[in-house]
Amino acid sequence: MLIIEGAGVWTPPAGAANDWVEHLRVPDLSVGTYCIPAGGLDNQSPHTEDEIYVVTAGRARIVTPDGTAEVGPGSVIFVPAGEEHRFDEVTEDLALLVVFGPAYGSRMAGR
Known about the structure:
Elements: E1 19-26, E2 29-36, E3 50-64, E4 67-71, E5 76-79, E6 86-101
């Protein structure tokens, strides 16, 4: 067992527009926190792994090719590998607990 301290907790980005911190990595999954400040822009690209976001703080809108949805604390979002997605209209500092399966970046070429 491992208690993952600080996962999903809002942390102001240090010197960058957004902040991604990985807390745990094993071959089949990774867990991290992604923070976007109010008014910030989400410039991520599609990932090679499936992912689940759990909104722990803040409010925004998620945009995918299939549509948009307003999200806030308690929202759980599944994004399949390769799907374009981004958060916009971040009206309150957004903190997301993120789970990747398998581990983030593990399906990228050369890894």
